[in-house]
Structures are given as structure tokens and as C-alpha cells.
């Protein structure tokens, strides 16, 4: 089966600095990746490439078998699910939770005069139930808790049944209860055979859901390690990437890390 994402020697240069530097990486359909690295390492830039929102300065990026720079990215983006706080800011506060998810079918935020089919509405309702949001379907998006808003972002990004799902810090700013609820839901989703390939950026190994198979570590725009999650999320590899001595543990499928 073809890779859903393939970067070959990809660099992104801004203001004379390589914010991604010779990155080569492939994501297969049955893989779920976590991307970790210090602030400014280039994680969000990597997702911008993977979501076809940015082209490499040099090298080749192929997303769902389309080489960026040679294809109509508007059609391609409909096959990619992307959840980030920046995108969520575009959802009007008064929009109901159901509409915030439903409007993904037309790639818009803010319901206007689009004609939705019953099948779209039923799918939105099913997605809301999957992400434990069905009881909030009629609530305005702006009146949800942070944890609920994060789940709406993800529900919206899976509404169109994407072939690759990109999550930029889905658990950032959540309290312990909301984080654990989200990590568990993500773990269940990631473990399902029919789930798409997933790439999740996070700052904390505690946020890696069970069912995630691979990890990529970035520092200063360069890949410092990549491969099966248990080979990469280690004290040695993380320590090199973050530049400090760490103790890394794993319990019941979940990782922990602290300074040594
Ligand atoms: N358009 C741009 N022009 C110049 N520099 C940029 C641009 N976009 C990003 N950068 C710089 O590139 C580096 C990587 O940014 P990026 O947002 O990808 O990192 P990150 O790993 O996601 O960081 P964080 O963990 O803090 O969110 C940062 O130093 C950032 O300031």
C-alpha cells in the first residue's frame, strides 16, 4: 500500500534559516505517529507541509500520492483532516456544536445557506456521539469548556472521513480530567482498524494515547530520531532531543518523563 505521506529531503527556509532541515519521513496508512520536540523545533511547520498548506523550499513532499507543487491543493485538502487551535478560532462562537461539525462537509466555518443532505446530518450526529458530544449538539460552540471545544475540533476534522488525520497539540491547555478523557478517546479511535493514518504533535509524552505506533523527534528543524514508538520514546533519545537528562517510564501503555 502506498504511503499517505512521504517527505524526501524536505527543507523549509524562512529569513535565511532552515526551520525544517533535510527531513525524510514516510507515514503508512496503518500507522499512528506522535511528533515531539522542543519549542520552535519545526513541528507546526511539518504539519503545514503534511496538510498541503505549505510547500517545501527544497525536497519533495507527497501527500496522498500527490506531489505538492504539482497538484490542486484544494481538492487534496478535502481528503486531509486537520485539527488545530488556529483553525478552531475560525468557528463562530454562536455556531451550534452540530453545525460546527456539519460545516466541515463544505470546508466552511459558519453555517450559511449550504444545503446539507440527511446523510451528512446523520454522519455529524454519529461523529458527535463517538467524541461524547451528542448531549451538546445544540449548544453554541463558544459556550463549551476547553476540553469540549478540543473534542469538537477533532470531531470536525474526522467528519469528512479523511485519509490522514493531523492533530496539532490536541490536549494543550486541558486540565487533568479533560486531558485524560481526550487521550482515552484518541486511544480508542487510533486503535480501530478503520481509522485513518494519524500524525499528532504534542509537547508531553503523557499525552501519547495507547494505540500510537510510531514517533518522530525534531530539534532545530532536524529529525533526531524516528521509528516504532518504544524505540524512540526512550530516556536516551528524548534526552538528546530536549538537551537534558531524563527518566522515561511506561505503564499500562502510557509514557511518563521527568528530569533525572
Ligand atoms: N513564516 C516564518 N518566518 C520566519 N520564521 C518562522 C516562520 N514560521 C515559523 N518560523 C520559525 O520557525 C521555527 C519553527 O516554528 P514551528 O512553529 O514550526 O515550531 P514548533 O515546533 O511547532 O514550536 P512550538 O512547540 O513552540 O509550537 C520557530 O523558530 C519559528 O519562529
TrEMBL record:
SMART domains, alphabetized: AAA (SM00382)
Span of domain ABC transporter: 5-245
Pfam families (UniProt xref): ABC_tran
UniProt xrefs under InterPro entries: AAA+_ATPase, ABC_transporter-like_ATP-bd, P-loop_NTPase
SUPFAM superfamilies listed in its UniProt record: P-loop containing nucleoside triphosphate hydrolases
Keywords in alphabetical order: ATP-binding, Nucleotide-binding
Top-level division of the source organism's lineage: Bacteria
GO-annotated molecular function: ATP binding; ATP hydrolysis activity
PANTHER family documented for this protein: SKFA PEPTIDE EXPORT ATP-BINDING PROTEIN SKFE
Stated name of the protein: Iron complex transport system ATP-binding protein
